[in-house]
Amino acid sequence: MLPLIKDNLLDFEAEAGQTDHTLAHAMERFFGLLCKAQDYSLQESYADYGKLDTHTLNDLAKLAFTQRFSYDRQIQFRDSQIQERDQQIQDRDQQIIAIHTSKSYKSTFLFRKLPFVLDTLFHFNIKKINMADSNEFRIKEAIKRRIPSPLMKLLQKVKRKLKKPKIQKQLWHKPLSNSSTSKGKTVLIIAELSISQCTKYRVMQKVEMLEVLGYRANVVSWTDFHQARNLLQTSAMVFFLPCSC
Fold first, then answer.
1. Are 188 and 228 in contact (CB under 8 A)?
2. What digits encode the pLDDT tens for the residues 4-41?
3. Which is nearest to 142 in space by CA: 160, 165, 167, 116?
4. Is 243 in contact with 203 (CB distance < 8 Å)?
5. What is the C-alpha to C-alpha distance for residues 139 and 5, in angstroms, rounded to an integer?
6. Residue 203's closest CA among 216, 220, 186?
7. Which of 99-113, 206-220, 227-241 has the lowest mean pLDDT?
8. For 61-77, how does the pLDDT look when each residue is reduced to its tens digit (9 = 90+)?
9. How would you label 107-134 residue by residue, b for 16+ Cβ within 10 Å and e otherwise?
10. Diameter of the chain by CA atoms?
């Protein structure tokens, strides 16, 4: 029966409280026939163990205790392995803590960090100072942590004052040119143009409405990727019109 079970060839019925006429009931009755076919004998087991002979009781007890003790020994062996690993991890943690708290480790901190600092200063790149994964950013944050908070607030206040005149020189503070004003009146419509009725009622009518309002509309199919991308650069607004006719 093992090949049938391993290969999932048995199709058991769904559990619905059946009391007979299922594959499970047939298999239960088949165990006795298998034992007989292998020249084994069958013995009735009584609910009252006092009716069993001593030899049978001893065999049952040995079987039960052997299985139980072998399982317990496996669990104990696994527990001992886990305890040994935990102890090794604790010993390593204690060693690391002892090293980091030792005076020699603290006294050599600057010497150990000196090659890193010199290498960063030698290859210093101001563009990387705000990148979280750069050495320049790490040095900046280390310096900020060592500056007293009152002094840091004063430096930030001075930095904000120095930045104010520069903000006024940005492009968005200048008046719009004629070309910028005309581009602000350009609308791009990306639509489904393969169906004529959708093109007429959903696209061209909106183009006429926008022209009445003083906007210039460009229409492009959603399948024309390159043209749509180019027109996006010079459009102030974009409408996406899928077909739902």
1. yes
2. 666 666 777 787 878 888 888 887 777 778 888 888 88
3. 116
4. no
5. 65
6. 220
7. 99-113
8. 766 666 555 666 777 78
9. eeeeeeeeeeeeebeeeeeeebeeeeee
10. 112
Alpha helices in the chain, H assignment, sequence order = 2-6, 23-37, 54-100, 103-107, 109-122, 135-146, 149-167, 178-183, 196-198, 205-212, 225-232
Burial of 190: CB neighbours in 10 Å, binned 0-12, 13-18, 19+: buried
Cross-strand pairs, 217? 187
pLDDT score of 208 more than 70: yes
Q: How many CB atoms lie within 10 A of CB 154?
A: 12
The predicted model scores a pTM of: 0.28
Q: Which sign, positive or negative, has the C-alpha torsion 76, 81, 82, 87?
A: positive
| Single-letter amino acid, residue 94 | Q
Which pLDDT does position 174 carry in this prediction? 58
